[in-house]
């Protein structure tokens, strides 16, 4: 799968299944802010847990721009330009490797 393929699939479907993980685009609102902000959540098959990717996602002016910004964060992780931040190192390392494999 090429980078363009997985990015397009994730944007169109809102989720992406890769070996060991399920990635979903979602929205979150904080209690202090009425705006919804984009989030990336990741299900780790090895641990059986959902994790929130804590890398900052730039807030867009539209919902579409928010999703594009979220996918770009994943593209930077896939390219090795950014480390995934989950709070659990083993998950972050395995997730980064799985994403990098998409572009090979």
Q: N- to C-terminal separation?
A: 8 Å
Tally of discrete structural domains: 1
Q: Order of strands in the sheet with the most strands?
A: 1-2-3-4
The total of beta strands comes to 4
Specify the number of helices: 3
Main sheet specs:
4 strands, antiparallel
H/E topology pattern: HEEEEHH
Q: Indicate the mean pLDDT.
A: 89
Structural class: alpha+beta
Helical content stands at 25-40%
Structure description:
The chain is of the alpha+beta class. It has one domain. It is built from three helices and four strands; from the N terminus they run H-E-E-E-E-H-H. Strand 2 and strand 3 (36-44) form a beta hairpin. Helix 2 (63-78) packs across helix 3 (89-102). It is globular. The N and C termini lie close together (8 Å). The mean pLDDT is 89.
Structure keywords:
single chain, 104 residues, alpha+beta, 3 helices
Fold blueprint:
Elements: H1 3-13, E1 15-18, E2 21-29, E3 36-44, E4 49-52, H2 63-78, H3 89-102
Antiparallel strand pairs: 1-2, 2-3, 3-4
Helix pairs in contact: 1-2, 2-3
Task: Describe, in short, the structure shown.
The protein is an alpha+beta fold and 104 residues long. The chain contains 3 helices and 4 strands; from the N terminus they run αββββαα.
């Amino acid at each position: 799968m090429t980078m363009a393929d997985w990015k397009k699939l994730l944007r169109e479907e809102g989720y992406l299944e890769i070996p060991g993980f399920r990635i979903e685009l979602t929205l979150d609102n904080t209690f202090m802010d009425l705006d919804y902000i984009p989030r990336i959540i990741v299900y780790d098959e090895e641990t059986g847990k959902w994790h929130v990717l804590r890398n900052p996602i730039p807030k867009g002016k539209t919902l579409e721009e928010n999703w594009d910004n979220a996918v770009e964060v994943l593209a930077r992780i896939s390219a090795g330009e950014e480390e995934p931040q989950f709070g659990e190192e083993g998950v972050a390392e395995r997730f980064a490797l799985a994403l990098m494999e998409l572009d090979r």
